From TrEMBL:
Pfam families: Metallophos (PF00149). One of its GO terms (molecular function) is hydrolase activity. The keyword Hydrolase applies. It comes from Flavobacterium beibuense F44-8. Coiled coil: none annotated. Keywords: Hydrolase, Signal. It comes from the Bacteria. Residues 56-256 form the Calcineurin-like phosphoesterase domain. The keyword Signal applies. SUPFAM superfamilies: Metallo-dependent phosphatases (SSF56300). The lineage of its organism: Bacteria, Pseudomonadati, Bacteroidota, Flavobacteriia, Flavobacteriales. This is Metallophosphoesterase.
Length: 1242
């Protein structure tokens, strides 16, 4: 037996590996000495003597061994800097505040040392009058969530500061206002990286309970603080040139195990695995860490006001790349080598700290101090600035502009489309966007008593400016012309900063044209209709706003255009009649938080239903949570919320043409329905707000739905509609408006039908929630499949009914009942008759379950919690600490979805290949991240006329964290593989005999059930069995038709059974164009013929691959892959053998060119990025690559010593890190081979 790792050792080409390792070492060698990029001093420090320090941050990270002498020296010198700026000083400890395991519980080993270390750090707060703050690091989590909370309590008790520990309560994000021009945003990066299933109480005291919600909050905070300097404090750096970034000292390469025994080769290999695989979640290549940094870098890359401060790597670093300023100060008690990568970088691998001085909104300076042998030295300082806004003086603008101006949203050129384009996509409302209309001009100094621009808006499509008027009231000045770049960045490319990459592309032009599918002026008159219906509304006004002095620096991007100006619903407008003159105004997130907090908070469901039905009448599908504000009314001891819908951009959409309606039938776009006289699908029209509707409409009966529908039908009269539309600009009042009005009136007549249809959609799966107070849920099984659910609030001496609803199994398939926090009682009684499936979810604290008859009752709760179960044998107890299962998330309900992608490729064996991959995803209760996924792949091969069909089903969470998979595969009788005979030096005469000579037609069918599990770090485990039938189709004048080449029995159907186990680890920074990554897989099993039991054989296959950047700009990348396959006896057939040849191994040879009992291969590429170009469609990267492959097969009694080789290269092109196309030519001893393909990995 020659397993492939053995063959690496014996291979004569092993000497090629050593230079590769040496190259990796040289290009990643870090140092303990101070290092400076070639431009580190290019930008001199400004003379700051005349500047006043607005605020000083002293940054100390990883001070967890504060009792050590070197750390004591760091703290002593930092004390001097703290005393220099008085109360305008903040001391920030940047995580890993206690080594090695955070704060142990009281009485446990290490507690005393932990308190001592923390106290040394806290004592520094006594030396100055400013504030002290701690953020957590990964080591602070090593005693669990409980240890983190105890550390926080210890810090807060000592400092007596509310925000001494950021974020608090084990949450993900918090912000701290320093002054009017300076804010700190603190992120607990380990919170993001952690496996939440280990901590049943995680996020219990947090408003933000998902990772996505934390990142959305970061986006919101960055936008709110766009005019301030923002310090983003996060333990794990976004970029690092230390060991966590894959840069190691020479000592670490030679002594990888932290011992005095040198292991140079092993050290190289271990460090190579560490840096490429991300196997450590604490390295930047780790999956969760990488996902976090990609998203945050995308958010901050376009912002000049953000400075990132971190610890984690035990050194001092300054990194400037992609417009991001990264400060690393992690040398509070440990030291680790680092290097410089980018021109302006700095690094120092010794003990020390950093001082960040903020002089004004636009000027900052970071200074690094090294502390060694009780001597402090300034080793680097860097002036950090951002562009100051251009000042616009009064003389630049004429304040005497006319009262009215004729203007259009688009230029005429933007709406000129060919007849064929219009045939495909229709006319939209295109002509109204370039139609000049007369609009009032306005001077911001006098508008609403005078308004001042305060910041840009954060919309995902619109370009807007927030204006502030008297009494702190705010207004939104929103351009009618939207932004394609903003949509692409915030929706399509959340993890890749695109800047202006899509400018002047067909993608941008298509999006700008697609925006014309919404009428530019109808949003201004919807409030008039809502007024007649008793629906709260904003009061948008149309203005032409000239560039003017009052716009200040925003003149650069705003002004001289048409704008909508409307109130921003907020507490300062609580006297506004159109908002209902409420006591306050809140966001949807705040309302949902209050509804969870206590039963005293309620929604006026009838008012909300009225608005939602009106949304459907006007075809407005864009009703996500941020499109709402809520008027709050305090009534005695209760609070009632009523909705204020806003942002009516998507009313009356017009999707025409031949192609566009087909595109809109894709499930992910099906909610975007053309505005006709009827609603094609109420369900899909409500796709976006569906989860919110489920969360807020809980208790309304069919009669109440019909009452609201009839109210709309009665009060939305023809007169109301006509009067509202008459307020549109006269220029656009034509046959199109008449058609919209006609369609609206016809829809109004069917509103009762739509109400019942949508109520039926909401009733199919019903979410019922308690609050974070004690509740008693009484679920009573009634006759004829009915289930009654009563919720009682448990008071001190009695229970108070707060909800009572009955559900019918003809309408409702499942009830998801969440108790949420505190101690709840779930009682199921009655005799079930064809009952509804009831899922009971206890949530936090200690719950009690009483179930008389558990038919179709499933209980989910934390297995680590002490709950009481008085249930019968029919009740299914599903106890797990799985966070996603037990945590209430109102966004969890989701529709099922279909996606499809074509595939294309070519190689000489298959000819042109056309294919399709279609996925149907089912989203029900159990998800990881979906419930079920059905994938069908079909490929047609033009060279042989053969085709193959493949089905894969994935059924998640069937047993703990294990999932069930099922695969079925079929090939047509003309589907072919190649066979040249057994051996390492078989003959290929295709030049004389043709390509078909060695083709073997196989008709196959297989089914394979499996159990599999995936982990967050990239590991995949699978166990499967397979049943397979294979028949070799008779072919004359081919190699297999010669007597003795294959056994005669293979001409008949043969049946096989296989059992197999597999482990796979895969992690790449960017899958379609990786610069760093690793792949390892190993699978082994046993296959047996069901026709001849003695024909059975064990087998094992393995793959090991590395991808590694050679140059620090990642333009030159090295990739190599080792493959091995071993069959342990000779009881196999040729189509089960180990083979080499084809696009994925020996690329200069035909598919299955060599067949044997064992095979080994190494395939190596060197990829060079040549540049970027902006095509008419999307931006691309392009480059070349060269490759070299060698390998061989073995058979019994084979004395061949030949290693087959192929070499070649090709071109590649990559679109926005998502899709790669390759074309290449490789040459081997059989000749050359050309192939190309379009794929999602390199």
């Amino acid at each position: 037996m020659k397993f492939f790792l053995v063959n690496i050792i014996r291979c004569r080409n092993i000497k090629l590996l050593l230079p590769v390792f040496i190259v990796f070492t040289l290009f990643s060698c870090a140092s303990y000495e101070a290092k400076y990029g070639k431009e580190a001093f290019k930008f001199p420090i400004k003379d700051t003597l005349n500047y006043t320090i607005s605020h000083r941050f002293v940054l100390i990270g990883d001070a967890g061994y504060a009792a050590r002498p070197n750390s004591q020296q760091v703290l002593a010198y930092a004390k001097e800097k703290l005393q220099e700026t008085g109360e305008n000083t903040s001391l920030f400890y940047l995580g890993d505040n206690i080594y090695p395991h955070g704060m142990p519980a009281k009485g446990e080993k290490g507690r005393e040392a932990a308190e001592e270390s923390l106290t040394f750090q806290l004592k520094l707060s006594e030396s100055f009058t400013g504030t002290t703050h701690f953020i957590p690091g990964n080591h602070d989590w090593y005693s669990g969530l409980k240890g983190l909370e105890e550390q926080e309590d210890f810090v807060k008790d000592y400092l007596d500061q509310k925000k001494a520990y950021l974020p608090g309560n084990g949450c993900g994000i918090d912000d701290l206002k320093i002054n009017d021009s300076l804010t700190v945003i603190a992120i607990d990066s380990q919170w993001f990286i952690e496996d939440w299933d280990r901590y049943p109480t995680i996020n219990d005291d947090c408003d933000i309970k998902t990772r996505d919600a934390m990142l959305n909050e970061l986006e919101s905070l960055l936008n709110k603080n766009q005019n301030k300097t923002v310090i983003l404090a996060i333990h794990h750096p976004l970029m690092t040139n230390g060991s966590h970034g894959g840069y190691f000292s020479l000592r670490k390469q030679l002594f990888p195990l932290e011992s005095d025994i040198p292991l140079p080769v092993l050290g190289l290999f271990l460090n190579l695995i560490r840096k490429t695989s991300g196997v450590s979640p604490q390295d930047i290549q780790g999956r969760q860490y990488n996902a976090l940094t990609k998203r945050i870098k995308t958010l901050v890359q376009g912002k000049d006001n953000v400075i990132v401060v971190s610890g984690h790597d035990h050194n001092l670093q300054y990194i400037y790349k992609d417009n991001i300023n990264q400060i690393i100060s992690g040398a509070g008690s440990k030291a680790e080598a680092a290097t410089t990568v980018n021109p302006q970088d700095f690094s120092y691998g010794g003990s020390g700290y950093a001082v960040l001085d903020i002089y004004d909104t636009y000027t900052s300076k970071v200074t690094y101090y090294a502390v060694k042998d009780d001597v402090e030295n300034k080793v680097f300082e860097k002036y950090i600035t951002r562009p100051r806004p251009k000042k616009y003086i009064a003389e630049k603008f004429d304040s005497n502009f006319p009262a009215k101006v004729k203007a259009s949203v688009y230029t005429p050129e933007m709406t000129q489309k060919s007849g064929f384009y219009k045939f495909l996509f229709g006319n939209y409302y295109r002509k109204y966007f370039s139609m000049p209309i007369e609009a009032n001009t306005v001077n911001l100094d006098t508008l609403y008593g005078g308004v001042t621009p305060i910041r840009e808006g954060g919309g995902h499509q619109s370009l807007s400016v927030r204006l502030q008027g008297p009494q702190g009231r705010e207004y939104v000045m929103r351009g009618l012309k939207k932004s394609a770049d903003r949509f692409l960045q915030t929706v399509a490319f959340k993890t890749k900063y695109i800047g202006d990459d899509f400018n002047n592309t067909l993608t941008e032009a298509f999006l700008m044209d697609f925006y014309t599918s919404s009428h530019p002026y109808t949003p201004f008159i919807i409030g008039d209709m809502q007024e007649s219906l008793g629906i709260y509304h904003t009061n948008p006004e149309l203005f032409y706003i000239p560039k003017q002095t009052a716009l200040q620096e925003y003149n650069a991007d705003y002004g001289n255009a048409l704008y909508m100006v409307e109130e921003r619903p907020m507490g300062e407008f609580k006297n506004l009649k159109s908002f209902g003159s409420p006591d306050d105004i809140e966001s949807t997130d705040d309302v949902l938080e209050h509804l969870r907090k206590s039963p005293k908070y309620t929604i006026d469901e009838k008012a909300f239903i009225r608005v939602r039905l009106f949304d459907m009448l006007i075809g407005d599908w864009d009703r996500h949570t941020d499109q709402w504000r809520w008027s709050r009314f305090n009534e005695n001891d209760s609070v009632i919320y009523r909705p204020i819908p806003r942002d009516r951009d998507q009313a009356f959409p017009n999707y025409e043409g031949v192609l566009l309606p087909l595109i809109m039938n894709i499930p992910s776009l099906r909610y975007m329905q053309d505005y006709k006289d009827h609603i094609r699908s109420v369900k899909w029209l409500a796709f976006e707000p569906y989860p919110m509707d489920m969360a807020l409409i809980r208790n309304s009966s069919e009669q109440e739905w019909l009452e609201e529908a009839r109210y709309l039908k009665t009060n939305l009269t023809d007169k109301v509609i006509d009067e509202a539309f008459s307020k549109l600009p006269p220029e656009v009042q034509d046959e199109t408006i008449e058609e919209i009005k006609s369609n609206l009136k016809k829809r109004r007549e069917d509103v009762e039908k739509y109400a019942l249809e949508y109520r039926a959609v909401l009733l199919r799966t019903v979410l019922i929630t308690g609050t974070d107070k004690d509740e008693h849920f009484v679920i009573t099984r009634l006759s004829e499949g009915q289930t009654r659910v009563q919720i009682y609030s448990i008071k001190k001496h009695h229970e108070e009914l707060i909800s009572d609803n009955t559900y019918n199994r003809k309408q409702t398939k499942e009830l998801w009942i969440y108790g949420l926090d505190d101690d709840d009682i779930f009682e199921v009684k009655g005799k079930p008759e064809q009952p509804i499936l009831v899922r009971l979810l206890g949530g936090q604290n200690n719950d009690k379950y009483i179930v008389e008859n558990g038919k179709k009752v499933k209980i989910y709760d934390f297995k680590s919690k002490k709950n009481t179960y008085e249930v019968d044998g029919k009740t299914k107890l599903l106890l797990t600490d799985d966070y996603e299962t037990n945590t209430y998330n109102f966004k969890k309900p989701a529709f099922n979805a279909y996606t499809g992608l074509p595939t294309v490729g070519y190689n000489p064996d298959d000819g042109f290949k056309l294919g399709l991959i279609a996925n149907y995803t089912v989203n029900s209760f159990n998800r990881r991240p979906f419930s079920r996924k059905h994938t069908v792949k079909a490929n047609l091969y033009f060279a042989t006329g053969g085709f193959e069909l493949d089905y894969t089903g994935q059924f998640m969470n069937v047993a703990s964290k294990w999932n069930f998979g099922f695969n079925a595969h079929f090939t047509s009788p003309t589907y072919s593989i190649n066979f040249f005979g057994y051996g390492n030096q078989t003959i290929n005469d295709d030049d004389k005999l043709g390509m078909n000579y060695n083709r073997v037609k196989l008709q196959t069918f297989s089914v394979a059930p499996a159990l599999f599990k995936e982990t967050p770090n990239g590991s995949y485990f699978e166990v499967h069995t397979m049943f397979r039938t294979i028949e070799v189709e008779e072919s004359n004048n081919r190699f297999v038709s010669w007597p003795g080449v294959i056994p005669d029995y293979l001409q008949e159907h043969r049946q096989y059974a296989t059992i197999n186990g597999k482990y796979k680890f895969e992690n790449y920074d960017i899958k379609s164009l990786p610069a760093m990554g690793m792949l390892f897989s190993i699978s082994g099993g046993w296959t047996m013929s069901l026709d001849q039991a003695e024909r059975n054989f064990p087998h094992v296959q393995s793959v090991l691959g590395f991808t590694h950047r050679i140059t620090r700009d990642e333009n030159l990348v090295f990739a190599t892959t080792f493959k091995g396959h071993v069959l342990f006896n000779n009881n196999f057939e040729f189509y089960q053998a180990a083979t080499l040849g084809g696009d994925n191994d020996l690329r200069g040879y035909r598919n299955q060119r060599f067949t044997g009992k064992e095979s080994y291969l190494q395939s190596t590429d060197l990829r060079l990025t040549l540049g970027n170009f902006r095509s008419s469609i999307i931006p691309f990267k392009y480059g070349i690559f060269g490759g070299y492959d060698y390998g061989r097969v073995w058979v019994e009694n084979d004395d061949s010593r030949k290693w087959h080789q192929s070499a070649g290269g090709g071109l590649w092109i990559n679109g926005v890190d998502a899709l790669t196309a390759k074309a290449f030519y490789f040459h081997g001893s059989d000749g050359g081979r050309v192939a190309f393909g379009l794929l999602f990995g390199f």
